[in-house]
């Protein structure tokens, strides 16, 4: 694979490896996510999923390999520079400020960029938060807080969104809402890369599932095919109890 041959609007990871000290956390991981696709990344504990997200978002540099977004090699770009190019992410840990309202958080997320108030209002509408705009965030349900974090990540109009376990700690109803948001509202509009432990979410939102195991891609394909693969089931044996 050659970065310059890629479809210009794709997100491309090419031969990425990461070594921590003497430990190989990722070994030559390659994948390509097209614009509008929802890609799930799954794998047992310690497979390298969080390491992958941190490399893709620019928190860590890969030991080797390259990452490209829209035909631009972003391997050495800071997280901020990646975000300006259209790669947004949410974090596993809630990062909202008590006492500030939903609308104020949306202002904060703009970070000085030139976006209209109307665009922000439309985004709150899309995410089902419009009625909560003037509520202080600490009065929101856990689910609404996570959805607000997604709305904040979307405010600059990214072309790709990285979601690190968006349904962690959610009730069944909140998870169903997240499934609809990702599977119905975002799918087809932007590329989404979702790290997810809940196979129900994976099946209902993603076009393609990539399985990481021991730092390498073990399988990749449509959810129905990948999740019924005996080799993939085997990877989760003895691990299922933790998720
Ligand atoms: N900063 C680091 N220094 C050393 N080793 C690390 C570091 N970060 C991760 N690792 C190791 O790399 C491997 C992959 O970790 P990672 O957190 O990416 O896995 P994961 O797939 O996200 O697991 P989980 O499902 O438990 O969240 C683990 O063995 C972990 O101990
Ligand atoms: Mg992890």
Automatic annotation (TrEMBL):
<dbReference type="GO" id="GO:0005524">
    <property type="term" value="F:ATP binding"/>
</dbReference>
<dbReference type="InterPro" id="IPR017871">
    <property type="entry name" value="ABC_transporter-like_CS"/>
</dbReference>
<protein>
    <submittedName>
        <fullName>ABC transporter ATP-binding protein</fullName>
    </submittedName>
</protein>
<dbReference type="InterPro" id="IPR027417">
    <property type="entry name" value="P-loop_NTPase"/>
</dbReference>
<dbReference type="GO" id="GO:0016887">
    <property type="term" value="F:ATP hydrolysis activity"/>
</dbReference>
<keyword id="KW-0813">Transport</keyword>
<comment type="similarity">
    <text>Belongs to the ABC transporter superfamily.</text>
</comment>
<dbReference type="InterPro" id="IPR051120">
    <property type="entry name" value="ABC_AA/LPS_Transport"/>
</dbReference>
<keyword id="KW-0547">Nucleotide-binding</keyword>
<dbReference type="InterPro" id="IPR003593">
    <property type="entry name" value="AAA+_ATPase"/>
</dbReference>
<feature type="domain" description="ABC transporter">
    <location>
        <begin position="11"/>
        <end position="239"/>
    </location>
</feature>
<dbReference type="GO" id="GO:0005886">
    <property type="term" value="C:plasma membrane"/>
</dbReference>
<keyword id="KW-0067">ATP-binding</keyword>
<dbReference type="InterPro" id="IPR003439">
    <property type="entry name" value="ABC_transporter-like_ATP-bd"/>
</dbReference>
<dbReference type="Pfam" id="PF00005">
    <property type="entry name" value="ABC_tran"/>
</dbReference>
